[in-house]
Design goal:
The structure is a homotetramer. Chain A is α+β, with helices and mostly antiparallel strands. Helices cover about 50% and strands about 10% of the residues of chain A. Chain A is built from 20 helices and 10 strands. Chain A has a 4-stranded mixed β-sheet with strand order 4-5-8-9. In chain A, strands 1-2-3 form a 3-stranded antiparallel β-sheet, covered by helices on one side. In chain A, a hairpin with a 5-residue loop joins strand 8 and strand 9. The longest helix of chain A is centred in the middle third of the chain and has 22 residues. Chain A is globular, with a radius of gyration of 23 Å.
Amino acid sequence: MTKTKKNKIINDPIYGFITLERGIIFDLIEHPYFQRLRRITQLGLSYLVYPGAYHTRFHHALGCMFLMKKAIQQIRNKGHEITEKEAEALKIAILLHDIGHGPFSHALENSIVNNISHEHLSSLFMNKLNEEFNGKLDLAIKIFNNKHPKKFLHQLVSSQLDMDRLDYLKRDSFFTGVTEGNIGTERIINMLDVVKDKLVIEEKGIYSIEKFLIARRLMYWQVYLHKTVLSAENTLIKILKRAKDLIQKGEPLSSSKSLGLFLKKNYNLNDFTKNQELLEVFSNLDDHDIYSCIKDWQCHSDIILSYLCRSILNRKPLKIKIQNTIFSEQIVEKIKQETKNKLKINEEEVQYMVFTEKVSNNAYQYSKDRLNILMKNGDIKDISDASDQFNIEALNKTVNKYFLCYPNVPNK
Amino acid sequence: MTKTKKNKIINDPIYGFITLERGIIFDLIEHPYFQRLRRITQLGLSYLVYPGAYHTRFHHALGCMFLMKKAIQQIRNKGHEITEKEAEALKIAILLHDIGHGPFSHALENSIVNNISHEHLSSLFMNKLNEEFNGKLDLAIKIFNNKHPKKFLHQLVSSQLDMDRLDYLKRDSFFTGVTEGNIGTERIINMLDVVKDKLVIEEKGIYSIEKFLIARRLMYWQVYLHKTVLSAENTLIKILKRAKDLIQKGEPLSSSKSLGLFLKKNYNLNDFTKNQELLEVFSNLDDHDIYSCIKDWQCHSDIILSYLCRSILNRKPLKIKIQNTIFSEQIVEKIKQETKNKLKINEEEVQYMVFTEKVSNNAYQYSKDRLNILMKNGDIKDISDASDQFNIEALNKTVNKYFLCYPNVPNK
Amino acid sequence: MTKTKKNKIINDPIYGFITLERGIIFDLIEHPYFQRLRRITQLGLSYLVYPGAYHTRFHHALGCMFLMKKAIQQIRNKGHEITEKEAEALKIAILLHDIGHGPFSHALENSIVNNISHEHLSSLFMNKLNEEFNGKLDLAIKIFNNKHPKKFLHQLVSSQLDMDRLDYLKRDSFFTGVTEGNIGTERIINMLDVVKDKLVIEEKGIYSIEKFLIARRLMYWQVYLHKTVLSAENTLIKILKRAKDLIQKGEPLSSSKSLGLFLKKNYNLNDFTKNQELLEVFSNLDDHDIYSCIKDWQCHSDIILSYLCRSILNRKPLKIKIQNTIFSEQIVEKIKQETKNKLKINEEEVQYMVFTEKVSNNAYQYSKDRLNILMKNGDIKDISDASDQFNIEALNKTVNKYFLCYPNVPNK
Amino acid sequence: MTKTKKNKIINDPIYGFITLERGIIFDLIEHPYFQRLRRITQLGLSYLVYPGAYHTRFHHALGCMFLMKKAIQQIRNKGHEITEKEAEALKIAILLHDIGHGPFSHALENSIVNNISHEHLSSLFMNKLNEEFNGKLDLAIKIFNNKHPKKFLHQLVSSQLDMDRLDYLKRDSFFTGVTEGNIGTERIINMLDVVKDKLVIEEKGIYSIEKFLIARRLMYWQVYLHKTVLSAENTLIKILKRAKDLIQKGEPLSSSKSLGLFLKKNYNLNDFTKNQELLEVFSNLDDHDIYSCIKDWQCHSDIILSYLCRSILNRKPLKIKIQNTIFSEQIVEKIKQETKNKLKINEEEVQYMVFTEKVSNNAYQYSKDRLNILMKNGDIKDISDASDQFNIEALNKTVNKYFLCYPNVPNK
């Protein structure tokens, strides 16, 4: 980070330089809540497959803000008003949109707390920061929650084509080295326009949008849902579950104080609103809390827990099979039986070792908000109508895959 | 170019260094027929839209050879034999696959000679070189013409996934700056395998193939068939046509000697086989022959010719409209009438100024050779069956577009 | 080129997108004088060594303008005034700074006209355009000629660290693939400041400046003065000289009309000011005029001319030796004698075939304008004092090399 | 990671794909000792300044091996024998050259153990692995320790131009986004040759070597010794020191079991050789051990420890001043006094808060092994003689800088 007379400049291997303006933006970045994001990886355990993928939520948030500035500039150039106050609020909203993420981002989203999405937690953090900053985040929070009358501003923060997606696809592609996931961020932003308070893409940007949808799908199957990543991240979930079970049964288990609290009890959104302290404790959590546990637990006497921890640390993930149809009960049962025999574990214990889940992805969700194309004649068309290649059925189709994990225990 | 003890190394902004082995490969590259490709741009007049797009057939051919070496290595690693002689032949075949291109590559493919594809001319050149090199190109020619029993070798030179396409998409994307057209060349080559004498792609490369097909389509509409490029290249065709007409009517028109021959008469394939000299004359042609003509002709007394030449030189291409349906005769007639009045030209002359054409593209041609995917269970599936996203109808659909060009004559 | 509502956007493989504002800037770019730069390569015959190096003066000029906009923004951010009028003038001045270049840029700078630098010709073109545009270029011309009171503005256009150098090093490095010549353009611009009407670099940018000086030197020896390029470009100079001699002796020699004029007579600056037409004729010249000549002349009966032309076209440049000391007269004489014998040419003719020249380069010219570093304590130091590595002697040292060219005639 | 029939392929954002061969190489990579490197960052706390710099020793080691393969190929192409066994040994040696690094790489090199360099520890690990792999590492260890008669092999592993440096400069430049530190790895490797059992660089690679030396220097001052990084890493050292002091005084302090051992006692090389267990305990350490401590200790009752820990976690490093001369005792004393008063700490405690150190760098160490240039005439010259720019004095000059750290305590 380099100080210039007024602003700070940060080197980004993707965009070159990102300028941080002095003022509220800068102060938010300096806040411990935000600095914590430096210790939360963007892609959980994907680095086990893609050894470059250690980039963090911190870096991603700065990248989003950089793109937001570009988008604001473009939309203003097209003749639409975005006031200075709105511009600042947009930058704040995108900067903080992921601040509620816990350790390992999505991978542990439902393992540390109960049924609380990271967006919920982001909202809680924003409100807390708003108090600290004397209401200066009011407008940002309104836009984040889509309560501001200018609806297209919310779309820049959260929609099928928000700055979040534009940054994460580009960034994840860059750091994993999966160059095929790269997208034409700059061109897409140049094609942005606003019609009737809706974000639209100019017709000549249609191929870039198609490319974006395909790249997103490719990244899902090749990176986010890569089978080794799936196996490792689901193993991590089982580790947390096993730890909670053991602790809640009274078994002593080392951990940081903050993580300990969340292992001992399953907190829900209600708990967070009733108990202000809880958010503060949550704000202490990051990837290191989990790592120090699994490093410690790899020698624990519970063979389930230690087995699973070692599988992550030494990169020997559970074996995994993926198929398009559900796994038959017989097959699952058979593997469970074999595993029980080989590892001499019981029915309850085998649940942590042999399990099956579903993963889904659809490139585009027609039912949610639309990807609108502004045709040259002024019409607005949904991308699935505007594209001569994509058809709505294929785009809308949710692709489900099923996977089965189990330990690789050699036969005697 | 830098000499090492044995080989020459060439800097390529895309692949880094390309090594040229001493021997026949090196001698072919030194031959004037091949050196001529330095003076033929890969993308015709696309540089009028993409000012970086001046790369040449020479550079492309070297790139293809570089990829061919990688592919040979991969396929051998997978346990399939490619003999040393076959490897050399493959490199020769891909090096020379475009040697028959005339000035401006595809743009003038049917304007200088009559109904002779550049592949035909490449064949003629290869035969000629084979004589000079005492039969050392025999096997390369066999592979090029698909007469060699190992059919998959021909596929590396010419098929839906040949080294030609892998290089040109990457290269054209690079030099135009249309980054979205970039493809995962290296990954695709790593996924190549051979089953029953057919080139296949391993299943886990399926997303890269989807990406490749989408990128190809994107490059077609965004670069190769960009409307300004379409207008300019069709204008160029009209210039040649007008010049031929004038010359054949006896009008004196300056040109290089070699080009003059082809302006005076329309030669067909038969002429080339009867008259060995013709190929030699053709081998003198490159982009400069055309440029020096249009530079000279911009002052010609024929107002059609001079108007069209100036429109290229000063980048004032004819106006162009593109639509998905054919242009009605009334509209075309109306514009012709207006143009005749404004420019005071007659019915014959207006044909050069106002014209309509069709352009087509389909991402994948099911009817031609297949893009085969090797499934994990050993099955071979066509990409359209193997992909859960693409469907055969959409892929196979030929997209037709129609364009109408006309001069931009301001009203008085 | 893509139209948005107001501006045009151009894809640049280096910077991404370059926006062209409507108005005078846009109109200048559309002018035939400027469009001509599309047909003048930036690096002359370097493409014979670096096959990607076909980029043009047109592309470079747009790149410079892009950087100028960045620089203006930075300097304003540091609290220094650059008025809107000055900003426009800066963009015009940098856009047109190379408009006087003739075919092959520097290679033929003294072959077509006599002792007229391209800067002189750029001035003539700017004055001409200023007339056409009713004085709108007044301020740009003042800045270009360093007649504007704010001196630092001129430095942005022409100095040791102007936008010209920042662009050409980056661009030439990119297209040649000599990645080591790449420079930190963006960082350097971020470090710009102004003190007492002088451009300075903040102290923490010192390593970037050192890097820039080294990269520049590397590009000189590895690209601009690469021995094959030296040989080829000096051969080109001899071709022009021979052609002029033959023509001036009355020998008929084909060429474009415009080039013909300059072959027949050696014009100087005085001729250009007396005869307004001359500039117009010069504005018709580009690389194609030269190419069509050498293509035609390769069959000319003068064996000197035809030999040299073929050596360029078929990439068989004259052999070249480079050394740090001057070549002894005996050696030169000996080679001349051998060449005369082998090729059966006379003393006058051998001057075109065997010749020796000096090339020089120094990384930094202390005597000219300075590269000023703004130290943290507010002092201004010359880079050679501020750097702990570079010393003034080494930086200032002019490196001279000598080369000797001669034909590669095999012994019988 | 993708399996092909025989090998595994890893995506590297820098080199594209790295192939891991089955066999000993693959088995070493799978070993927990090597997998541990996934949890040790290459650049310690540099990510506080360069938010992309989270890459690991694991990634770097794979990169080195990739370059080693290229170098082996080149040197063989130049006609020098490297047997298959030697090639494997070279790959093993470079893969394991950094395996002895502890948490935060260099930053804590002398804080966890006493006077044991990471090279020493690497040696210990290699010997241990050699036992496990039944002597298969014999030759690799010989080469690593320069006991193999072919001396140039050792130079590929460790010298002024080894594969280690070629990878880390490129990789650190890539992930920090300091593009100016990028080097021409591929070109340098292409220029490698061997003369009289010594690694040399062909003369025409001289500019690349100059560039490499300059880039290395730039990376030192701009990244490795960046003042904020210096401050943060020295703070980290003080944290470890403080923790050791407290523990050794009997103060209870949480930590992982393995780290605890090293906090309680200062082990030296002798201890490691006497007690085989110690290495095993050391092999459990990685960045997470340190992080979980400083996260926990930020609330410790010792105000020195908690202050320093918070300064890292919240990115509020100690203030730092850098200058070319030593700081006068008076100044240091004055700041210590102020700090003592403000923070109400004693003389012993202030040592952790206010301290001064020296950092040094010289681009090239003439006294150590040489960077030999193979001149065209066959002579071997040291780079400082061969280069017309660099002079031996400047290159050899050790640049010393001094820094002073102190807390930023606002005046009341």
